[in-house]
Design brief:
Blueprint: H1 2-13, E1 26-29, E2 32-42, E3 47-53, E4 59-66, H2 70-83, E5 94-100, E6 103-108, H3 116-121, H4 132-151, E7 154-155, E8 164-167, E9 172-175, E10 182-183, H5 222-236, E11 244-246, E12 254-256, H6 259-265, H7 285-297, H8 308-327, E13 339-345, E14 357-363
Antiparallel strand pairs: 1-2, 2-3, 3-4, 4-6, 5-6, 7-10, 8-9, 11-12, 13-14
Helix pairs in contact: 4-5, 4-8, 5-7, 7-8
Amino acid sequence: MGNLLWSFVSNFFWPQTSSLPETSNRLNTGPYIVDAGTVLGSGAFGIVHTAKHCETDKLVAAKRIDIKDKNKCQKIAQNSENLLSLKHENIAAVFHIVSEPNTVWMFMEFCDKGDLVEFLKTEDFGSNNVSMEEKLGLMRGIGSGVQFLHSKDIIHRDIKPSNILVSGVPAVAKLTDFDRSKFLEQPRKNSEMSSNVGTQAFKPPEFYERTPDHKLKYHRNVDIYSLGLSFLAMIQENDHLIPRIETPNDPSELVIYPIGLLMWERQKYDVKPFEVVDLDISETDEERDVRELILKMTNLKPEGRITADGVVLGLAKIIDKQWKKEDQYSLEFDVFPVSKATQHVDFDVENQSRPSVAVSFWFFV
C-alpha cells in the first residue's frame, strides 16, 4: 500500500522524474533507457521519443537520427557534439550524444508543454485570456536564444513555431532542432551560405529569387526573417502562414504561396507579410509596436533587416513601455487621515527584469 501511495504521489508531483511506462519497446542507449513506443514528434531528420536516465530516473527527450550516408552521419554527430556546450535558458539543453554507424542519438531537455504549435492550440495560449505581456515574454526569450546563437556564430536556418519548445510555469520558450544549422568554421560577420535548407513557409524572399545566373547566397539574417514570421504566428495564434492566392484563369482555384515568394514576386508593390496573411488582432499600442518590429525583421532586402541584438532591444523597449503604462503610476491612499503612500517603479532595460515595487511613506503633521 505504501509503495502504491508513493508511486501515485511521485507521478503526480514530479512527472518529469517518473519512470517510463512498462513497454517492450525499450532500448538501452548509453546511460539512458529509450521508450521507442512513445513518440513526442518527428521530422525530416528523425523521430523523438521519451527516455530516462538509468541512475537518476530523469525524464528526457531522445532524438534518433538515421542516416544511410556515413559521412553525413559523422557530420551530424559532430554538429550535435557542438550543442553540448551551449548553455542558455532559451536553448533546449543537450545532455548526451551517442553515435552509431548510421544513427545518432541526441538526449535533450524534456519540455512539458510541447512545441509552440501545440502551445498555440491549447486553452492556456490560444484564447482571449492570454495577455500581450505573456506573448512578449515568449518572444523576448526566443529572440534572446537567437541572439546567443549568433554570438557563437551558429545560424539556425530553420526557425519556425514547431522548432520552438515551451516548458514550465511561467512558460519559457526554447529553440531546438539544429539539424540544418550552420556552425561557422571561420566566423565572420557576413559569412555567406548557399545551401537551400529550411522550411518553405518560413524562407525569406532571397531564397525565391528567379533571375538569370542567380546563385543563392545568404547570411545570418535569414534567421531574423524566420523569427519575424514566427512572431507573426504568435500574434495571430496560428502557425499556418502560407496564404492561398486566386489563380488568374480560375478565381475559384487557390494556389498556396509562401510569404517569401509573394514578397519577391510582388516587390514592386512593396508587399508586407501582414498584407498576405489574414491577421485578426485588436489594435492595441503593444500590438502595433510588435507589428512595426516584425516589419523591421522581415524586410525584403536582407541588409535592411535588424540584427538579433536589435530584436532583443526592440522587445525590451516594448515591454518597458507596457510596464510603465501599467505599473508606473502614483498610488495614493490614506494610512491614517494624515498619511499618504506613493508607489515607485523602476525598470532596468539592460537586465530586462521585471520591476520591483518600492513603497515609500511620507507622514504629515
